[in-house]
Design goal:
A 7-stranded parallel sheet has the order 3-2-1-6-7-8-9, covered by helices on one side. Strands 12-11-10-13-14-15 form a 6-stranded parallel sheet, sandwiched between helices. A two-stranded antiparallel sheet has the order 4-5. Strand 13, helix 12 and strand 14 form a beta-alpha-beta unit. It contains 17 helices and 15 strands. The protein folds into 2 domains: 227 residues, Rossmann fold (3-Layer(aba) Sandwich), CATH 3.40.50.2000; 165 residues, Glycogen Phosphorylase B (Rossmann fold), CATH 3.40.50.2000.
Length: 414
């Protein structure tokens, strides 16, 4: 009852926001501040979403952008541009990522939004924060964008035994949910094209391509990369789960070992398919989950990164590997297909046997050819600069003018 009354009150107060904004622009006075509140259920979960959001927060803090992140967690500390609400409840999700979901107080989120002077929202996760983002949209008459980190339809097709009937029902639920947003920020062209197809029917003008970036410290490792090696090494890094394609690794490895008998493979990561992969690939060295420092060392000790996933919407591990000068062999789909230029920074394949042939081709090539691909891999990072990606995001959300004015004020004050 309290929530309903609060929603109705805000809706009445802000129903004419667009008219008031237009009037303020005509009078050149009384304009509402332009600020983004970025909602997420995942900020410190050690997954791709939280990794990107931590990188985002660092850039926002360094550039003093008018963006604040909001999450819910029982003991995470607040920082500049990061608001943390304490949960009123929580529950554990075994699928898809063994994640604890914290439930915030809806009225606390509404209070943060109103008192913070925000006038637009970006949301990164579909569960609790996705619902609250739409609540704020209708309560305050503000535009809301959804940042699509995960292709859930593809995930459930590849990781569950749901019948076609239930998979189609889930697709329709996703379509109804995503249609509520004013825009969708999408990480690859294949996903964008599916969203605009008859399956989802989202207007193409609402779909905006974006990208992730990686810490420049990865690029600094390039000068420490050496070839050739006495024992060539393959690396897989990421969640060890069926949808990530890890069960293709044994077949790929066996094909490569027929030509290169002394090949070795290392697996960095944990997940529900770990036991099965250990049985099918006993030759592998399993590193488990490792921190950033050990991960960087693993990239340097490898000759090629394998990513047998048809599911990744982007693939931060691809960009991290390329930054260090490590070529990548991936399937020709989703995010990796947009990042990797075939036979330049690595190879794009359609099957395990084709991926294995590409690995053999690279490892048996000349030192000159390997160094060429390593240099191209390292140089690919230039297409994924944080400042360029953030500039495009701010233009997409109508924030560029606000940032320009802020920069002028800072320069004048300086």
């Amino acid at each position: 009852m309290i929530g309903g009354a609060s929603f109705a009150g805000s809706q009445v107060l802000y129903a004419n926001r667009s008219l008031l904004n237009s009037l303020a622009d005509d009078l050149n006075a009384g304009q509402h501040s332009k600020r983004i509140l970025w909602l997420t259920d995942s900020f410190c979960d050690g997954n791709g979403v939280s990794g990107f959001l931590n990188n985002l927060l660092a850039e926002v803090q360094a550039r003093q952008l008018p963006i604040d992140l909001l999450t819910c967690h029982p003991n995470l500390k607040e920082q500049a541009h990061l608001t943390v609400l304490r949960p009123i409840s929580e529950f554990h999700l075994k699928q898809p990522s063994e994640q604890t979901l914290y439930v915030p107080d809806m009225l606390e989120i509404q209070k943060v939004f109103e008192q913070g002077g925000y006038d637009r929202i970006i949301c990164s996760t579909e569960l609790m924060m996705g619902i609250f983002a739409l609540y704020l949209k209708h309560a305050f008459s503000v535009p809301v964008w959804f940042y699509m980190h995960t292709d859930w339809h593809e995930y459930f097709q590849r990781s569950t035994a749901l019948s076609a009937q239930y998979t189609d029902r889930f697709r329709r639920l996703l379509r109804a949910f995503y249609h509520q947003f004013d825009g969708l920020l999408v990480l690859n062209r294949e996903h964008r094209d599916w969203l605009s197809s008859e399956a989802m029917e989202i207007p193409v003008e609402k779909l905006h391509l974006t990208a992730h970036w990686v810490n420049t410290s990865y690029a600094e490792l390039f000068n420490h990369r050496n070839i050739p090696r006495a024992t060539p090494t393959l690396l897989y890094a990421g969640r060890v789960s069926r949808e990530k394609g890890v069960l293709d690794l044994p077949e790929i490895f066996q094909w490569v070992r027929k030509v290169i008998p002394n090949i070795r493979i290392r697996i960095a990561g944990n997940g529900p398919a770990l036991k099965k992969l250990r049985r099918q690939l006993p030759e592998a060295e399993f590193l488990g989950w490792i921190g950033e420092g050990a991960m960087k060392e693993a990239y340097l000790q490898a000759d090629m990164l394998l990513l047998p996933s048809r599911f990744d919407t982007f693939g931060c591990v691809v960009l991290e590997a390329l930054a260090t000068g490590l070529p990548v062999a991936a399937y020709r789909s989703k995010g990796p297909a947009d990042i990797i230029e075939h036979q330049q920074q690595g190879y794009l394949s359609g099957s395990p046997t084709e991926m294995a042939s590409h690995v053999v081709k690279y490892l048996t090539s000349s030192e000159f050819e390997q160094k060429r691909m390593q240099r191209l891999a390292h140089d690919r990072l230039a297409a994924y600069k944080a400042e360029d990606i953030l500039h495009k995001l701010l233009v997409t959300t109508g924030m560029h003018s606000a940032v320009t004015e802020q920069e002028i004020e800072l320069n004048h004050a300086g």
